[in-house]
Amino acid sequence: MALRSEATAERISRLHEVAVRARPVALAREHVLPVLEPLQPLLPDGLRRGSTVAVGDSTSLALALLAGPSGEGSWAAAVGVSNLGLAAAAELGVALDRLVVVADPAPESWASVVAALVDALDVVLLRSRRRVSGSDAQRLIARARERGSVLIVLGDSWPEAADVRLSVVRAEWEGIGDGYGHLQARRAVIESSGRRSASRVKQVELWLPSVDGGVAVVDELATVRPLRTRTA
Fold first, then answer.
1. Of the N and C termini of the chain, which has fewer Cβ atoms inside 10 Å?
2. Could you tell me the strand order of the sheet in which 216-217 lies?
3. Where are the domains positioned within the chain?
């Protein structure tokens, strides 16, 4: 047990070192962080620093939120997202050279890992394998507000209400023909709601992902590529 505790402490120490190196880039003075253009109708003011955004179980939507800030030079992190696909993240626009990934932190150190990243990075995407305690959630929210970071919460383990909630209310894949073909793009209706300035419910229909793997408004990409038909 002592050896495990020492190893955990060493990993958290290394994580602090990474955060310190990123700090000069990450802590910019803008009050909001940018979002990809297709997401702007849902978040017209961008991602407000110090806020918490819940995205349900949609990893692709969470990655699309990371893409805007990281593409403009901010550092981001993903904690506890063990199924994160780096190729898919890159296609959605996430800058991998400014992404810190802690795939599966030990449950007892999860909150410490998130706190270390919140201290220095602009956006932290987090997921926990077990229910986050109310006290841990409140401490992380307070820390994000103090540091000007944005928390993006994936899954249903977070006990606190988010400032903004984005949810996929309807989705369908396109590209499959009569028993053949392959998935090409997912048409999804995304809804935003929340508190204060985000209290007005808004919806937008997106390709998430689009044919090229990115994000696009459905009106801008009316059809997917035609399927190749099989010949006898």
1. C
2. 99-102, 76-79, 123-126, 150-153, 52-54, 164-176, 181-194, 202-207, 216-217
3. 2-164, 167-220
Nearest to 78 by CA among 103, 53, 46: 103
3-class SS string, 106-167: CHHHHHHHHHHHHCCCCEEEECCCCCCCHHHHHHHHHHHHHHCCEEEECCCCCCCCCCEEEE
Looking at residue 178, the DSSP 8-state letter turns out to be S
Amino acid identity for residue 162 in this structure:
A
Instruction: Dump pLDDT digits (tens) for 41-61.
Output: 999 889 999 999 999 999 999
pTM: 0.83
pLDDT per residue over 163-177, tens digit each?
Answer: 999 999 999 988 665
